Amino acid sequence: MLTHAASPPEAPSRVVVLGARGFIGRHLMAKLAAAKVPVLAPGSAELNLDSPDAGDRLAAQMRPGDALVMLSALTPDKGKDLATTMKNLRMGEQVVAAVVKAKPRHVVYISSDGVFADALALADERSPTAPDSLYGGMHMMRELAFKAVCADRLAILRPTLVYGAEDTHNSYGSNRFRRQAAKDGKIPLFGQGEEMRDHVAVEDVAEVIRLCLWQRSAGVLNVVTGRSYSFMDVAKLVAAQFERKIEIQGQARAPGSAIWHRHYDAGDCLRAFPDFRYRDLAEGLAQTHRQAQALGGA
Fold first, then answer.
1. Is 0.85 surpassed by the pTM of this model?
2. Is residue 232 part of a domain?
3. Tens digit of each residue's pLDDT (9 = 90 or more) over 96-121
4. What is the DSSP letter of 78?
5. CB-hemisphere CA count at 13 Å for 29?
6. Which of 12, 109, 164, 220 has a beta carbon 3.0–4.6 Å from 202's, enabling a disulfide?
7. What is the pLDDT of residues 237-267, one digit of tens each?
8. CA–CA gap between residue 273 and residue 217 (Å, rounded)
9. Mean of the pLDDT values across residues 123-150?
10. Domain for residue 180, yes or no?
């Protein structure tokens, strides 16, 4: 659960954003620009977080009054192997070292719901972390590393499946479905798309980060809507956005393959930010489709 140090909420004097050019980072940057908040957002060409001096270089650019948002991570589409995991951990190590040296006023770490076991059917912020993947394990280790040095001023946010028009990861879900429908007129599913998952719009993820920054929140929050849908239902919502008929194709599963469902209790988010509401999935996917068309793609 989150606690807030700033009441009433106030914009930070400056926000340092690591991963500003990523999917979530771009939306956060737009919100900070709209609020006219000063930002330091070094790109990888200016600050390679995998270099051994990155922590010192980052600390030299930071101020004690800064808020730091750590988004930088190589996502599974960039690699699921140990080498990618170790690179992510080295990046986290350098940022933690910078926090120790520069002592920013507030830190927001963007983790993942991959820290939970795949078989966990109902999750909330008190559910144990027991990742089944190297990617989830990496985020769990980073969470522990940040907690060890700045727990009193640290917000850990764990988004579930994030969708939006400019997603680059193309993982299984609405973003991939939209591209497949536009390209091939078909959406292939694993099995009959039985698995149920929560899906959150990237704009809402960015807004939750902003709310945490303005209120200097500390603690853990799952960035989830509390409403889960089967992948079949998601595919139908995506298909409905197209004028032509989109075929949804079920496939035979491998023998013995597991079917996992995931539901979330989103009560902590409502208690932390009572005036905030996540957008409905049908509304969000329709908006995403319009945005994708405006960008000239799927």
1. yes
2. no
3. 999 999 999 999 999 999 999 999 99
4. G
5. 18
6. 164
7. 999 999 999 999 998 888 888 899 999 999 9
8. 11
9. 98
10. no
Q: Provide the residue range defining the domain that includes 111.
A: 2-163+200-226+264-278
* C-beta neighbour count of 2 within 10 angstroms: 21
pLDDT at 261: 96
Copy the structure tokens of residue 156: 């850990």
Query: Can you give the pLDDT at residue 298?
Result: 58
272 pLDDT higher than 80: yes
The CATH number of residue 123's host domain is: 3.40.50.720
State mean pLDDT over 53-60.
98
Sign of CA dihedral 50, 53, 56, 61: negative
Pairwise CA distance, residues 200 & 162, whole Å: 5
Which residue in the block uniquely carries the two structure tokens 């400019």? 166
Residue 264 Cα distances to 10, 101, 187, 261, angstroms: 30, 37, 26, 10
- What is the tens place of the pLDDT at every residue in 192-222? 999 999 999 999 999 999 999 999 999 999 9
Domain count, the chain: 1
Q: Encoding tokens for residue 89?
A: 């951990």
